[in-house]
Specification:
By secondary structure, the protein is mainly alpha-helical. It is built from four helices and four strands, in the order ααααββββ.
Length: about 150
């Protein structure tokens, strides 16, 4: 008898979650993380794992209502800027930092990197100066390979 009562509470509250989430306009994409579900997702999570799903719905219900009333515009999401690189990357960096901070920042030029060759197995970069014609061994994966050094 007690098990039947618990079963009725679980099924009844799960059906209420389905009806309520549909009524308030819950849909996927409103919240972030694991709580980003539509009415069906809330129903299944509440029914399958009631002890976690039902309290999670109750605690996020206000956030769902707020997200439905105040949807985020596309402009609200952070956008990665693509910054063109000029011929002189140090000068370009200085110009960008001056535009952002309003002050000039001087940077010491970095020496050009030594040319590298990638290991054919693990793609680990190996210094081209250390590669000998014939047989070589990658320091990372230990595979022996033959390099044609011009």
């Amino acid at each position: 008898m007690f098990e039947l009562m618990i079963m009725l509470v679980v099924v009844g509250t799960s059906i209420w979650v389905l009806v309520d989430s549909t009524a308030i306009g819950a849909r996927k994409g409103l919240l972030k993380g694991v709580c980003d579900m539509g009415p069906g997702g809330w129903f299944i999570s509440s029914l399958a794992l009631w002890i976690v799903g039902f309290p999670m719905y109750l605690s996020n219900r206000a956030s769902i209502i707020d997200a439905v009333k105040n949807p985020r515009r596309r402009d609200d999401f952070p956008v990665k800027r693509i910054i063109p690189i000029s011929q002189d990357p140090v000068a370009e960096w200085d110009r960008q930092q001056q535009a952002v901070t309003g002050r000039t920042i001087t940077v010491r030029p970095v020496a050009p990197a030594e040319p590298t060759i990638d290991c054919p197995t693990c793609r680990h970069p190996l210094l081209a100066a250390a590669i000998r014609p014939g047989s070589n061994v990658c320091q990372k994966c230990g595979v022996e390979f033959v390099a044609d050094v011009a």
